[in-house]
């Protein structure tokens, strides 16, 4: 008898969210918004980042505890099914434009046939979610030790298939601007601690501003993440960064989330009241409080976080 596929454990919950199981764990999606600051100063959800939340019985456990127990033969399938539930849960929000950032580890797929199989699986997930492939962003960690040409070829291939590509953790280790330019991702996510260190003084901010301008000139959109204070949002505006993520804006929520109620899409500037630039930063809550978000608020400007 053939072994049971991990994908046979994919299920839809009563609340409409998608989850799966592995060994003693139930794997659920938490989504965290990436906001775009518009030219008029309002913020709109541009994308989500998909984050796994493993539960053992009803107890939330650290993701590292899950990954430590994954059998080596199952790593590829787990990597794939996590992308699947993040894509399906984003599609279930029925937003017309929002993208989903999903981690992708090209080294897991060691043959062209395996890679093609995964690409087709992602395309199928996107179709089931009602999302065009260009709303799926494959996020690859910045790693100077990886073969630049291979990563660039991966990025070219994924874009040819209709997906978008992001380089994560720029600034960690020996990041190289020229290497990123060669890969030509659609997005670069700056490593939070590295960027925050440069934000502390005018010389560091000037360097960040220069790097941001270089990426923008190459058609690469910078994203600053893990923003925890309102002043960091203001610094991003000063640096010319439009895409921002962090608890100062919204913390992750388990799917199906309250984001549609709290942050409706800005479909028309004249018809929708956006949340204002001057906002109090949200308070950090432990991961266990992500199960359901705060009570939805009527005014987009009052995030209630």
Description:
- The protein is α/β, with parallel strands linked by helices.
- It has one domain (14-290): EAL domain (TIM Barrel), CATH 3.20.20.450.
- It contains nine helices and twelve strands.
- The protein has helices at 63-68, 75-91, 112-129, 148-160, 177-183, 192-199, 202-217, 230-239, 259-262, and strands at residues 11-12, 18-22, 25-37, 43-56, 59-60, 99-103, 136-141, 164-170, 187-190, 221-224, 243-244, 253-254.
- An eight-stranded mixed β-barrel has the order 3-4-6-7-8-9-10-11, surrounded by five helices.
- The model is unreliable at 269-289 and 291-305 (pLDDT under 50).
Largest sheet report = 8 strands, mixed, barrel
CATH topology: TIM Barrel
- Give the % helix: 25-40%
The side-by-side strand order for the widest beta sheet comes to 3-4-6-7-8-9-10-11
**Low-pLDDT residue spans:** 269-289, 291-305
Number of spatially distinct domains: 1
Report the portion of residues in β strands.
15-25%
How far is the N terminus from the C terminus?
51 Å
Annotation, overall tally of beta strands: 12
Assigned CATH superfamily? EAL domain
Any idea what the CATH architecture is? Alpha-Beta Barrel
